[in-house]
Amino acid sequence: MPSFVYVLATTHPDGRTVTYVGWTLDLDRRLAEHNGKGPGAKTTRGRAWTLIYAEKHRTRKGAMRREFVLKNDRKFRAVLRGG
Q1: What distance in Å separates the CA atoms of residue 35 and residue 30, rounded to the nearest whole number?
Q2: pTM surpassing 0.70?
Q3: Which residue, 14, 31, 50, 78, is most buried by CB atoms nearer than 10 A?
């Protein structure tokens, strides 16, 4: 079953751009959940998130592995934030 790794961005009240990395089986549903239409992650509640990057993977395990890599790749996330 195809899975997705995604990066979301929002603006923090102090003006910084904040990113969030996750994985899902349904990208549209998950983005809606992060934006208040369901059980979003605790760290993403109450903010307006925009999808800035997504990758499609053949397996759930592949998506989870890639999520781990992206969460720890600060340079990649800085480029996405424009910094």
Answers
A1: 9
A2: yes
A3: 31
